């Protein structure tokens, strides 16, 4: 009798799990983690996302669900059911990414391509997005250049500007991507050495050419706040490249775990190591005396009174990448730089997908 009950329980659990799997194939994760806010058809307490999706599937009026862990109840979630009469444009709220909530939307026909957004096409059970977009339904902009590369897109040198929106950035910004090279993201480019001298407010947001109208031979910096949000979403390696000696020589230096801290730290720069290229190398022009903070003429934490913005240590040491005439150390000697750029390569998955 006990054995019979045991086998019955296993059979029911297996059948229920199989049914849930089929039911949840009718759902997609929605809207880059926006939660729907509005009146609900019903709120139930269930044990998993699968159970919540199943409850919605059994309710003909239910079209979307919000799922959040239940406070003080380990293993239980609050499942909010929303019907199509509730769904109105703009009736949603961005929640803090530290929450483990998510929103899922029912698909009327899981094989149809009509639910792929922004020009995406449904292929092999998923949306294939244009290079500019990503997400389950191509509903959002890419978060860095490598995301387009990971989605199968390839564009060779000299690269093209893409509109980027990292996690935490409210206003997307343009950045040059070379997808052929593992999807590198160019955060600083000095091709013509036009002036990138700027005050604190400008340095935070953007300096240089407008990449929405100028495609090639550009000079720009994506801004400190954009750089901070870009780097905090994953681990990145930075490659600083220079052409010097009147364009007759070139060199590289790589920085591991390249990162900048928030504004309250004056966007302090950190990295785990600096590794010159074995053949054509640059010296490390960033000071090793932490903290190395960003300074401008109107924001100067260490009272260095430098002529140009840049990352400097407490003894005012360091080289500026933003000077009208950039100088960088090569083989122990300061060299006049003709072209300079910093490219980021993401070497981990996003912290929050």
UniProtKB/TrEMBL annotation:
It holds the Pfam family Fibrinogen_C. Coiled coil: none annotated. The keyword Signal applies. SMART domains: FBG (SM00186). Gene3D superfamilies: Gamma Fibrinogen, chain A, domain 1. Residues 140-347 form the Fibrinogen C-terminal domain. Keywords: Signal. Residues 1-17 form the signal peptide. InterPro entries: Fibrinogen-like_C, Fibrinogen_a/b/g_C_1, Fibrinogen_a/b/g_C_dom, Fibrinogen_C-term_domain. This is Fibrinogen C-terminal domain-containing protein. It comes from Pomacea canaliculata.
């Amino acid at each position: 009798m006990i054995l019979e009950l045991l086998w019955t329980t296993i059979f029911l659990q297996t059948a229920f799990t199989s049914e849930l799997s089929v039911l949840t194939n009718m759902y997609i994760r929605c809207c880059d983690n926006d939660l729907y806010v509005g009146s609900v058809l019903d709120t139930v307490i269930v044990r998993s996302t699968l159970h919540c999706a199943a409850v919605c599937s059994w309710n003909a009026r239910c079209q979307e669900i919000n799922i959040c862990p239940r406070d003080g109840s380990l293993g239980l979630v609050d499942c909010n059911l929303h019907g199509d009469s509730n769904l109105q444009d703009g009736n949603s709220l961005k929640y803090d990414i530290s929450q483990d909530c998510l929103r899922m939307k029912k698909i009327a026909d899981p094989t149809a391509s009509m639910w792929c957004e922004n020009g995406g096409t449904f292929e092999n059970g998923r949306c294939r997005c244009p290079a500019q977009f990503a997400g389950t339904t191509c509903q959002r902009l890419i978060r860095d250049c490598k995301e387009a590369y990971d989605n199968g897109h390839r564009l060779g040198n000299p690269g093209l500007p893409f509109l980027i929106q990292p996690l935490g950035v409210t206003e997307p910004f343009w950045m040059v991507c070379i997808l052929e090279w593992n999807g590198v993201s160019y955060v600083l480019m000095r091709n013509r050495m036009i002036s990138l001298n700027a005050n604190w407010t400008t340095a935070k947001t953007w300096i240089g050419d407008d990449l929405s109208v100028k495609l090639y031979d550009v000079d720009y910096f994506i801004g400190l706040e954009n750089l901070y949000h870009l780097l905090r979403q994953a681990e990145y390696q930075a490659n600083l490249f220079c052409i010097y000696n009147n364009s007759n020589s070139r060199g590289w230096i790589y920085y591991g775990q390249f990162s900048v801290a928030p504004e309250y730290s004056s966007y302090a720069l950190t990295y785990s190591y600096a590794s010159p290229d074995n053949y054509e190398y640059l010296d490390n022009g960033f000071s090793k005396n932490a903290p190395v903070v960003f300074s401008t003429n109107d924001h100067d934490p260490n009272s260095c009174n430098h002529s140009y913005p840049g990352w400097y240590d407490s003894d005012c040491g360091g080289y500026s990448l933003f000077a009208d005439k950039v100088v960088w150390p090569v083989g122990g000697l300061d060299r006049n730089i003709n072209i300079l750029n910093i490219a980021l390569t993401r070497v981990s998955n996003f912290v929050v997908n």
